[in-house]
Amino acid sequence: MSNFIATILCAAVLATEMPAATPSETGNTVRMTVTANVEKDKRFPQIERGDVIVKNGDSPLAVKDWAAAKGERAGLELFFVIDEASSSSLGGQLDDLRAFIQAQPETTAVGIAYARNGTVEVRQELTRDHAAAAKALRLPLGSAGAFGSPYLSVTDLMQRWRSSENRREVILITDGIDRAGRGHNALANPDIDTAAHMALKTGTMLHSIYFPGAGHRFHSLWYATMGQNGLAKLTDATGGESFFLGTQTPVSLAPYFEQLQRILDNQYLLTVTVQPGKKAGMQYVNVITEVAGVDFSAPGAVWVPAVQ
Fold first, then answer.
1. End-to-end CA distance of the chain
2. What is the dihedral of CA 218, 222, 226, 228, to 10 degrees?
3. How many CB atoms lie within 10 A of CB 112?
4. Following DSSP, what letter does each residue of 133-185 receive, concatenated?
5. How far apart are CA 144 and CA 86, in angstroms?
6. What is the dihedral sign for C-alpha 10, 11, 17, 22?
7. Which of 30, 42, 85, 104 has the most crowded CB, counting CB atoms within 10 A?
8. What is the DSSP string of the chain?
9. CA–CA separation, 79 and 154 (whole Å)
């Protein structure tokens, strides 16, 4: 469980010498996106609803629905958020990004946004016109602005994002450094907790690609490591992935996009029944399977509306 989730959830009291609990069929249903992972070049086995185990602490949750994100369920809303503080050398990588966008299936709507001053400038609203989305890309400004936090910016985006039945995912390209003055300790940064909370509440999966920022001050190993720790904390909480090659500028983004495509192509929509509390809030969940060679990447918690 990530540090973020540990700070927002009460510790579960483990029962001892009790018979196995039976999942309750009553309660609120919540949906999440789950990624199935296997070793590279291994064949993906068939994963059925009965192969999925979901628990809240020691309590099993009833699986109401498990469906591959394909066919009629393939809808995806995918936003790219590029940090304006990124080095201008990112310009040499934009062709890799354009190629990835234009390779997306018709069921994927793509949006383009730039993070600056704790907000986002949406250059292209979500569209299935992938050529238009690719055209909206430009060089970053090389400046985070007066209040630069990629975590506040992605929170701003999620707050403005209209709800739908489609999967919601973000690919955040940044060095992860909070230049608003709270970037010295990623594990205690409230902006990261706020972004993770909003992602879980809105059902948004966040991925990140580390790319060094402009400015000599932020090239130190300390800042780079804190930035990567912050990104890992955020993406882990939502079931997403972080990509980086040490603290260096990647030679090419293409290998990252290849892995991201593999993630998007092997996702499932999971619906479970969760017992609500008197107040709406987060509840810890653990999604696993006993299918050999498969493990899941999933959110560590779900937002559960209050009991009616």
1. 29
2. 80
3. 25
4. HHHT-----S---TT--HHHHHHHHHHHPPP-SSEEEEEEEE----TTTT-S-
5. 8
6. positive
7. 85
8. --HHHHHHSPPP----S-PPPPPBS-SEEEEEEEEEE--TTPPPPP--GGGEEEEETTEEBEEEEEEES-GGG--EEEEEEEETTB-GGGGGGHHHHHHHHHTS-TTEEEEEEEEETTEEEEEEEEES-HHHHHHT-----S---TT--HHHHHHHHHHHPPP-SSEEEEEEEE----TTTT-S-GGG-HHHHHHHHHHHHHTEEEEEEE-PBSSGGGGSHHHHHHHHHHHHHHHHHHT--EE-STTSPPS-SHHHHHHHHHHHHTEEEEEEEE---SS-EEEE-EEEE-STT-EEE--SEEEEPPP-
9. 10
Q: pLDDT (tens digit, 9 = 90+) per residue, 117-161? A: 999 999 999 999 999 999 999 999 988 776 789 999 999 999 999
Name, in order, each residue with C-beta under 8 angstroms of 44's C-beta and a sequence gap of 6 or more: 36, 38, 266, 294
Residue 149 tokens, joined: 């936090």
Residue % of the chain over a pLDDT of 90: 72
At 113, list the tokens: 């946004």
Domain boundaries defined on the chain:
20-71+268-304, 74-264
Residue owning tokens 């930035």: 227
In the beta sheet, which residues pair with residue 296?
36
Alpha-carbon span 197 to 194, nearest angstrom? 5
37-63: per-residue pLDDT in tens? 998 777 888 899 999 999 999 999 999
- Rounded Cα gap, residues 197 and 4, in angstroms: 9
Q: Domain 74-264 belongs to what topology?
A: Rossmann fold (3.40.50)
CA distance 145 to 117: 5
How many residues can be counted in the chain?
308
pTM listed for this prediction? 0.90
